[in-house]
Automatic annotation (TrEMBL):
Belongs to the UPF0177 family. Pfam families: Rce1-like. The lineage of its organism: Bacteria, Bacillati, Bacillota, Bacilli, Lactobacillales. The chain crosses the membrane at residues 41-60, 72-91, 111-130, 137-153. One of its GO terms (biological process) is CAAX-box protein maturation. PANTHER family: CAAX AMINO TERMINAL PROTEASE FAMILY PROTEIN (PTHR36435:SF1), SLR1288 PROTEIN (PTHR36435). The keyword tRNA processing does not apply. This is CAAX prenyl protease 2/Lysostaphin resistance protein A-like domain-containing protein. Residues 76-170 form the CAAX prenyl protease 2/Lysostaphin resistance protein A-like domain. GO terms for molecular function: endopeptidase activity. The keyword Metal-binding does not apply. Keywords: Membrane, Transmembrane, Transmembrane helix.
Length: 177
């Protein structure tokens, strides 16, 4: 059964890669951030770092989503590594950043569109992770906003995928400490 799950993840990752090369890479998304400082990747990375520090310092219990991830990681660590650290960041960034930018917000040159893009993609990313409390909502929303900001600053999904994967890897490793 584990082999079938791993094969499924590899297959879906390959399909994602094909989608990337055939569809997303050919989309023309116009991005114009209103202030030059917004293009500096240190700001979304700093926001992400502050989020991690806040999670470590504040007594916020794990969300339902995080508890489910912990159960899965402890039950099947090898399979969970691929699902949580590799597959989930690729798919979530393709959906929440790439799909929305390409299909719904291809023209991110106006301030209103940028604000709507940030709010919509951050909210949907947050809701997909099932927050039940305000602190969990704020954590996932901020994470979604930082990933969206990094994508807009670099104009390349691979950066937000990498940061998302790094966050999930950190969470994955923390389970075993």
């Amino acid at each position: 059964m584990l082999a079938l799950g791993i094969f499924g993840l590899i297959y879906l990752t390959a399909l994602s890669y094909l989608h990337w090369n055939r569809v997303y890479a050919k989309m023309e998304i116009k991005i114009d951030l209103p202030q030059p400082w917004m293009s500096n990747i240190l700001f979304p990375l700093g926001l992400f770092a502050l989020l991690i520090i806040a999670e470590l310092l504040l007594p916020i219990p794990p969300s339902d989503n995080q508890q489910a991830v912990i159960k899965g990681v402890l039950a099947q660590p090898f399979f969970a590594f691929f699902a949580v650290v590799i597959f989930a960041p690729i798919m979530e960034e393709l959906i929440f950043r790439g799909l929305f930018a390409g299909y719904f917000f291809p023209n991110l040159t106006q301030k209103t569109n940028l604000i709507l893009y940030f709010i919509l993609t951050s909210s949907l990313f947050c809701l997909a992770h099932g927050p039940r409390t305000i602190p969990h909502f704020l954590i996932y929303f901020t994470m979604g906003a930082a990933l969206a900001w990094l994508y807009l600053a670099k104009r390349d999904l691979r950066y937000s995928m990498g940061l998302h994967a790094a966050n999930n890897l950190l969470s994955f490793l923390m389970i075993f400490l």
